[in-house]
Amino acid sequence: MKDYIEERTLEIANYIIETKATVREAAKVFKVSKSTVHKDVSERLPKLNPIIYEEVRKILEKNKAERHIRGGFATKMKYKTMD
Predict the structure, then answer these.
(1) For 19-44, how does the pLDDT look when each residue is reduced to its tens digit (9 = 90+)?
(2) With bands split at pLDDT 50, 70 and 90, how would you rate the model's confidence at 83?
(3) Buried (b) or exposed (e) across 46-82, using 16+ Cβ within 10 A?
């Protein structure tokens, strides 16, 4: 069981690096919860591969800094389709 979790953690990390995906997007692709993705990349990944962890951390920090923009855009699109 532990091997599966480690494998999933590395797959999620590589996916985030390749696509610059958010935690929510990665969770959808891997069919796990956002909490699981977050735990994998913030707690398990640093122990498995600190170098990949640093790359993922930078991407997720950037996503976090931009999330208010994405949220505003989504709201704008929602109301635009209501007209």
Answers:
(1) 999 999 999 999 999 999 999 999 99
(2) low
(3) eeebeebbeebbebbeebeeeeeeeeeeeeeeeeeee
